[in-house]
Every structure is written in C-alpha cells, then in structure tokens.
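Researcher: Structure prediction, please.
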Amino acid sequence: MITIREAIDIARKSLTEIYGHTDDAQVEEYAIDSQRKHWLVTVSFTVRSQDLNSITSLIPEKKWKTFSIDVATGDVTYMVAGGTGELLR
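Model: Predicted structure follows.
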C-alpha cells in the first residue's frame, strides 16, 4: 500500500508530465475512497493565456486537477478537473 505522501508525489509528477513547468503546484485536498482502493489528490496550479495580445495573459488562471491513484500499485487511474470534495458527493 502506498502512503498519502507517495500519492501526493505521484500526483505532482503526473501534473508536471502533462502540463510542464508547474512550480506553483499546491496540494489542496486529499482523501481515500470509501473502498480504500484509491487515493484522491487535488492539486492546484496557475496557467497564463497563450494569447500575448490579450489582457488575460497578464492574469494567471487557477486550475485544479484531481488524480485517482491506485493504493496497491501507485498507478494513476484517472485525472479530472475540480476538487476531491466534488467527487465524493
């Protein structure tokens, strides 16, 4: 069984692999599902608009991604937008 610390490291590594440079990534919340088979780790980060001619490129947008990580293997089983609390309702 992987620990929550290991699950957080896996979520951060996955985020970096998908989005590239994410120095400002922060763990927002985490939980284990009711069957204790998956850690759910929500990470927030900011992105800037790629349109350099737009005022929106000056204001970073905060995003959240929740990773489901298999407790037994450490594999990421899915990633969704939004927080853990939304998934557990």
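Model: The helical segments are 4-19, 84-88.
Researcher: Thanks, that helps.
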